[in-house]
Specification:
This protein has 22 helices and 23 strands. The protein has about 700 residues and is of the alpha+beta class. Helix 10 crosses helix 18 and helix 19 packs parallel to helix 20.
Length: about 700
């Protein structure tokens, strides 16, 4: 609009100038004044200034438009060629020609460049028959020497006319990427079609029929793959809510509610709304007969296809499988019942064995323990001590072997309790000396003097691990020495035990050492590794063939008594000594030898003991004289058992004597069981002196 105004102004000035010029000539002939000449001159100057300004502005605008045009064309992925029709003169070729067609420009003229382009068959052919109508080719394969793969181009030829001449514009477009996309789509479509075909074949062979539901439109389509059994009548389609009710009529009454809850339209919609699109499997019967029913299994698939919510319910006959599973379930149930009966019998047998084995062990441990308080020959006392320690080891082994909870669960758990570090290594020493036999091996056990005396941990497995290491060293050492060095690092209320066993044996080959470290097999050092893992510790092995093997284990233990080992190194005390003179203890046990053993153990504390052999005698005596300070009551007695005896005693007026159950039933959880039944405490057979001391202090010792 602005340009139109400027052009109009210029024209107006030109008209004024022409008019003024004519007026001036008229004035010359009419002898006009000099003023008219000056006015004419000024108008001419103003006109020239305005006209030059407009021309300069138009030139700048044209240059900008040319630059913009060149930028757009040169940065386009299209080659533009403009040719004059009559003269066939090339007027323009864009610089993309080298990149797209591989035609080098260099110093060639536009005509030379265009000539190479015009040799492209499709362009040459179309130009020969060009009839002033636009033409666009399909995708044409083109061999560009710059690339190792073929390119694809698309050619467009368009006529162009101005007032004087006619031209045609050739556009050559790089269509390689478009071709690749189309090729990929065609390939994918082909693959999808092929997969659909395979899937349909698999589906038709695997299933009897399909029920496809369009959830949004509430429509369904029932299609049979196998025509020999039309479970729900002929193939059909229609409204799903109506069709489902008709389909349910063919389903066994006992299964209809379950099928409806899974297949009703609201339930199917809920799956899509909650994005719960995992397939669902349901199994049901068709027909009203229970015994001879046909079992069907439907798998419900939820699919979103082109923004449509489609449910595909594929169904197959599983009658034979259902019957087979039913029969297997019956067999499994019977087997389970038999296993329960067998386990109950096994449990009873294990309890009986535990009790029967513990009874004689109680006597061995108790009598040997009592004898250690007598004045005896040193050698005899040492033998009795060995008997006592060995018997206690047998008790520990029985506890582990007969723990029914571990047998049933097939688990190994830590069994932690207080233990003496010094006694443990004395036991290790005795075991090692027996294993050494006649071999010329010197055994050295060195305990750091600052180690704590009493610790809390899995004493049985720690001892077993150390014995395994020492025995392994003895096995592979023919002469020389085995050094057992024990030290500790105190960490608050715990101590990190570091036990190092070094021998002068044959050593371990590198490959074998790797197997020991990396495998989980049992036996030897592998067994040690498993035990240390259970304890949450660490195992390290260092070895050199024909020189030595050093095995180091480390694990954390809680400190119970922080007195130093050196304080007890030469001590042979078995338990704390104190007097309970004047206290009266009633012992009730049907086994006379057990009575004797318990009485012997109590002698060391100077208590007055009374011994009875049945629950009936106990009740009768308490009714006569209720003046005992403590009752040790055996559980397994003929007639009235310990639990029943306890309950009857508590019915006696003013009876408040503590009752401690005395039993060989030492299975896991028995302490809690007996205390819950009403006993004041629990003492297992064979009697552990420390436990006995604890009970005596609790119920009899004042202060």
């Amino acid at each position: 609009m602005r340009q139109v105004k400027e052009i109009s102004l210029c024209l107006l000035l030109i008209i004024v100038l022409i008019y003024s010029g004519l007026s001036y000539l008229t004035d010359i002939f009419t002898n006009s004044t000099t003023l008219n000449f000056i006015m004419l001159l000024l108008l001419i100057i103003i006109g020239i200034i305005v006209l030059s300004k407009y021309l300069r502005k138009s030139s700048n605008s044209l240059n900008s438009e040319n630059k913009l045009f060149n930028s757009l064309v040169n940065n386009s992925d299209t080659i533009y060629i403009m040719i004059e029709d009559k003269t066939k003169r090339v007027l323009y070729v864009s610089n993309k020609i080298e990149e797209i067609l591989g035609i080098k420009t260099g110093s060639k003229s536009l005509t030379d460049i265009a000539y190479q382009v015009l040799r492209i068959p499709v362009i040459k052919s179309e130009l020969l028959k060009f009839n002033d109508e636009s033409y666009t080719s399909g995708m044409i394969e083109y061999d560009n020497p710059k690339y190792n793969h073929p390119m694809w181009i698309r050619v467009k030829i368009s006529p162009y006319k101005d007032k004087k001449n006619e031209y045609y514009l050739i556009q050559i477009i790089d269509a390689t990427l478009e071709h690749e996309h189309q090729h990929l789509l065609i390939t994918q479509a082909s693959d999808i079609k092929s997969r659909e075909s395979i899937l349909n074949q698999i589906t038709s062979k695997s299933y009897d029929f399909a029920l496809n539901v369009n959830v949004a439109l509430n429509t369904y389509d029932l299609k049979y793959y196998k025509k020999d059994n039309l479970y729900f009548g002929e193939e059909k389609r229609g409204l799903y809510t109506e069709g489902l009710n008709k389909l349910l009529d063919n389903i066994n009454e006992s299964d209809r509610e379950m099928v409806y809850s899974n297949l009703n339209l609201e339930s199917l919609l809920e799956h899509f709304n909650k994005y719960e699109l995992d397939s669902v499997v349901i199994r049901y019967r068709v027909g009203n007969e229970i015994k001879n029913s046909t079992w069907l299994e439907s798998t419900i698939f939820f699919v979103t296809e082109r923004q449509k919510q489609i449910v595909s319910i594929l169904t197959k006959n599983v009658t034979e499988n259902a019957e087979s599973i039913r029969e297997q379930n019956i067999l499994l149930q019977n087997a389970l019942n038999d296993a329960k009966i067998s386990n109950a019998r096994k449990l009873e047998l294990i309890r009986t064995i535990s009790h029967d084995v513990r009874v004689p062990l109680t006597n061995i441990v108790g009598l040997s323990d009592a004898l250690l308080y007598k004045t005896l020959d040193k050698e005899v006392k040492e033998d009795i001590k060995n008997i006592n320690d060995s018997s206690k080891e047998v008790v520990d082994i029985i506890d582990e072997l007969l723990d029914t909870s571990k047998i049933e669960k097939k688990l190994i758990e830590k069994e932690e309790k207080e233990y003496s570090l010094l006694k443990m290594f004395k036991k290790v020493e005795r075991n090692a000396k027996e294993y050494i036999g006649e071999k010329q091996i010197k055994l050295n056990i060195n305990l750091d003097n600052n180690l704590p005396v009493i610790l809390f941990g899995d004493y049985i497995r720690i001892t077993r691990a150390i014995n395994e290491i020492v025995n392994n060293s003895i096995k592979y050492t023919n002469e020389g020495s085995i050094d057992v060095n024990v030290r500790g690092e105190k960490i608050e209320n715990n101590v990190k035990l570091i036990i190092e066993v070094k021998d002068t044996g044959v050593g371990i080959e590198e490959e074998k050492l790797k197997k020991i470290i990396n495998t989980e097999t049992s036996g030897g050092l592998n067994s040690v590794k498993n035990l240390i893992n259970l304890l949450g510790g660490k195992l390290e092995i260092e070895s050199k063939i024909n020189e030595y093997t050093k095995v180091t284990i480390s694990f954390l233990q809680r400190i119970v008594e922080d007195n130093k080992v050196r304080e007890l190194m030469n001590s042979d005390k078995n338990a704390e000594q104190f007097s309970l003179k004047g206290k009266k203890v009633l012992i009730v046990d049907d086994n006379k030898l057990n009575l004797k053993v318990t009485n012997r153990l109590l002698e060391a504390y100077e208590v007055d003991t009374t011994m009875l052999e049945s629950g009936e005698e106990c009740i009768e005596l308490i009714n006569e004289q209720n003046n005992f300070d403590l009752i040790l009551l055996d559980q397994m007695m003929p007639g009235i058992k310990g639990t029943e005896t306890m309950n009857k005693l508590k019915e006696i007026k003013d009876f408040n004597t503590p009752i401690v159950v005395l039993t060989a039933d030492a299975m896991e959880g028995q302490r809690e069981k007996y205390i819950n039944e009403g006993f004041d405490d629990y003492l297992s057979k064979p009697i552990d002196r420390k436990e006995l001391v604890r009970i005596l202090k609790r119920f009899l010792k004042e202060g």
